[in-house]
Input
Amino acid sequence: MKFIYADSLDFVDPNYNFIEDRSDPNREVYWDDQFPHEYLKQPPYDGILVSRGIVGDHKFRGKYTDTQSMRFRRVGAKKFLRIDKPEFSHLQVFGDCGAFSYANLDLPPYTPAEIVEFYEDGGFTHGCSVDHIIFEHDNKLQGIRIPQATESNSLKRLSSKGLVAESTLISQEKAALASVRDYDKGQASLEDVLDAVLTYARSYLIDPKNGAPVGEKKIEELSEAYRKMLQDRPWQECDCEVCKRVGVEAAIFRASTGFVDPTPATNKKWAPQGALFCW
Output
């Protein structure tokens, strides 16, 4: 059995400053970043899957910028993903349509000929036929969510509408971050961490449309998930390069997706900011 990783521009800023919570001001997204197979000593997968829906085209926006999409099809998947080096020669490149991007359509928007052309342009080693999918979203918490108070668009809407003061969000964010980090050092109790993290959650989960508070059932679910995460402390037992380098920071989910958004205006970050891919 082989593990094929579905990529969506998942790279890490190796020089990210967790304490100041920022990247180097001169950082060039993608060019200064590293994919998992570059960041770790050994690739954590046997191949990479790239979906047409992620690359994007005239039918679907995708996650690539127009420039990245054109470069991908010009230089090919291996060069774009930087696996065109001898040490990555064993990695296979799979392609598919990205049916999740058109799950609400009755029929796939692509013909077999269009997908074959995409595979040829990308130089894929393997390609899936045109397919369709109907699925239900199963949102499983992967990390302790502490969104960036001054960067999150949803939190900006909360403060701009007067539902929560920006100063309150910033204060709660700092308290939540400090509590998790102190807990890791044995300087805070489990209950103290849960109190700080869930206090912040009650603020950032307010509905920005109508100001409705988050339901207690949701808070209970978060409490249960976070309690297990904190009690298990997987970042202390894991011997992967990410956990060894950043420790508890790998358990803190900061950005809304955890992955890099290639658009400079958003500049979201991939783990080690909460991807927890090794646990």
Summary: Residues 256-277 have pLDDT under 50 and may be disordered. Residues 166-184 form the longest helix (19 residues). The two ends are 19 Å apart (CA to CA).
